[in-house]
Amino acid sequence: MRTLKALALAVTGATLCVMNAGAVTRVPSGDGQFWDIQDTSPWSQDSGGIATGGRANPFNGFGYLKLQVRRADNGLLVSNQHLRGFGLHHDDTGRFDSITPVLVEGILTSRGITTATDSPYLRYFDSFTNTTTEDRTVRVAWGGAVGAVDDGGRVTVAITSSGDRQIDTADSFVIVMQNAKGAANPADGPSGHGPSAHVLGTRRGPFTSVGDMYGDPFDGLWPGFDTSHIGYVFTLRLRPGQTSALVTFVVKGLSEVYDPRGGYPIPFKDALVTGEPVYAGPGAKVPAAGSEITRVTATAKQLVAAPDLRGLTAFQRSQIVNWPTNTPAPPAFTVFEKSVTELQDAMTRNLVTSEDITIEYLARLSRYDRHGPTFRSVLSINPRALADARARDAERASGRVRSPFHGVPIVFKDNIDAIELPTTGGSLALVDHRPRLDSRVAAGMKQGGAVVLGKANLDEFPFGDFGISSVGGTVGNAYDPSLSTAGSSGGSATAVA
Questions:
Q1: How far is 31 from 299, CA to CA, in rounded Å?
Q2: What pLDDT digit, counting tens, does each position of 285-322 carry?
Q3: CATH superfamily assigned to domain 7-16+331-496
């Protein structure tokens, strides 16, 4: 008999993600500018790419992923697949979490982005899991467009970690700039748009080539159509069930030609791009030629010497393949068929964190609820689920454990009010209904430290015997697709199973 099954409890009962209001989510950066991340904002690609990186325009859509997947016999399954739809959500502390990992040909990809207000760099943590029963070769292209191609000068490599200007697979970082005035030595500047560093890792093997991100980075070598479109290609060989992760960093600098407080200066005129007036107000300042390139290079070298892995769990660190982390793999653990008691015991013994548990549940929802069997058991996912899990982990680390549910993800049936998500009752008529208060049961569970993962599908209003709603469709039976889940709590039942 299953007691206190995790994920969907007795109290709980098409994924809808809460979207942001802007085209991107803008967060401050240590250079006085900002990162503008393509997340779940309306009209955004939800790719995790950086739209511009500030008014110095060091990027024009950089940091997104493309995927190629091959079978063990080298048969091609997919190539040049642009990944998006990660459900990236900003937690208000500078971190972006993927709540809807992307599944392509059996490879489950999840992204995490970390920024800081006192830092000119951000970190990507990208994990790739082989959910199939066969070996897979996965090639990942990470990159995009740096600067912008205009009459101000084409993007060029200023210097690499090898000390030259040729990108090769031995390089741990690459510095690029926009050669606005045609300097013989680009490292001397000035850089028209802000320079940037791409920090790739120090462990030999995963970084295998450099491709044309504008076209097909797996078949077209860089430079291709345009030197600004760089794709760093990593090759991963994944056994069934194996997860490997890549940690990369992006460092950005200011323009060495114009004050970034002005307009975006196009088209080219007198070694500037000048369509809008350049800032000429009080305190107008343009960094000296080469100074921002030097600063960006110094930060890249610091990251190579000591990669910033703060905030990653032991499980996540053990998955990293492009940096030597010296982190042994924790004991194998899965949430499958675990009760709340078993999950709590594992967290108490430091075998796993609430964040790790929540990550696995989100992965299982992507694999089984939205793809594969497509159970449709969960209507909506709390975009703050991972942030809340980290908060419960911090409490546990300080000695506070609120109840046996502390750190355990739960799903409420969608006729139970929880202020994190709409309460639809399964009806499109209430799809935008946001409760003002938690229900008594939700308030009690949250007070006990439970992590609200989402809302479960149900019969509409909830009235019926087959688990059918206009919001989520028909709930699938986890054991026999020819049978219904019965009762209005079909989503809760399938989530438990």
A1: 12
A2: 889 999 999 999 999 999 999 999 999 999 999 999 99
A3: Amidase signature (AS) domain (3.90.1300.10)
